[in-house]
Amino acid sequence: MPRPTTGRVLEHVGVDGLTYRSLRFVAYGKRRYVSLGPVSAEAAEQALRHTIADVERGSWEPPRQAAPIEHESIPTFHAFAEDWWLRNEKQLAPSTQLDYRWRLETHLLPFFARHRLDGITFDQVERYIARKLDEPHPLSPRSINMTVTLLGAILEGAVERELIPRNPARGRGRRVRERAPRRSHLETAEQISAVLDAAARLDASARKGHQHVERRAMIAVLVFAGLRVGELLALRWRDVDMAGGWMYVEESKTDAGRRRIKIRGALQAEVVRVRERQPESGPDRVVFATSTGRQQSADNFRSRVLKPSVNEANRALIASQSQPLPEGITPHSLRRTFASVLYALGEDPGIVMDEMGHTDPALALRVYRHAMRRGEAEKLALKALVEGPKWRLPTDERSGETA
Fold this sequence. Notes:
CATH class of the largest domain: Mainly Alpha
Number of helices: 14
Distance between the termini: 98 Å
Radius of gyration: 30 Å
Number of strands: 6
Strand content: 5-15%
Number of domains: 3
Oligomer: single chain
Low-confidence stretches: 66-72, 391-403
Helix content: 40-55%
Shape: elongated
Order of helices and strands: EEEHHHHHHHHEEEHHHHHH
CATH architecture of the largest domain: Orthogonal Bundle
CATH topology of the largest domain: hpI Integrase, Chain A
């Protein structure tokens, strides 16, 4: 007894905004497609039932000029990506939504928007990568690869719906070779002081309208508390317990990321000065807000706070014939500086991991080994810097007094 014929209704949204439907079924040993056009779902289901019945009776005949798949049955990448976004948006965290929108709207859509899905080939993916690398200000290899990864995720949905036979963005040769990132941080007390002092000079010389930007204090929080840049910019006064001496990170993707950090001497002095300049600020106010009280962006911090401070610090270091800062200083470099300094000062590795929000002992060990290479004189200089002006060397050589 022959198997019953089965089929399904396929649908997609065309560039004109209408929903087009077609039938897919097996007839006489071959897979068949019949385009219905912009009909209702009920009409499409009824057409499918009648067609299957005709096939089983042997009375169905293929349309005389039927193509395997009509032009409208394969959407453009733009149309399919919009549909993919609507299906998946609510499953993504807010930060992931922003990241995916950036990858789609800034990079993938300008290149692939008008391509039909079956017109996106391995060759087209290669051309996209080549164009990204050839831009005046190209993305990093990692960022380009992230856009290709999203392209692959979207096209995988097209494969599952049998709109295309294979995914051209998956497999070997679809990635830019990435070099291991150079993980920079501030090596010495002199370098840390140079950046903090440079930020203070920029604060003092800020023109009207930019005097609210707390450059020195923001950098101090990254160096002496190890916050991520997003955590720094989201910090509110309710997260700062000056009486107890703790700074809290309450929002994080992981349990380890929700943590408290000890406010050590130098950081306490910086935070107190900021608080004195904001006497009316309530607990929900952002500590390092814009002039309108809103949260600053990470891009603004990098371009208006960190980069000018690093440049100014290098000018001062070179003028004094000191070694300039390592290349590639980022907000995360200052977070690594915090971990390295605590290890150099002899803090328990478990405490450092807790305050950093780390769970990987191997990562902690790598930082620890590097930090412990510092000499005793450098460790004392770092301790004096971290603990602030109240701390003194164990023995004052001029007076013989001890701390």
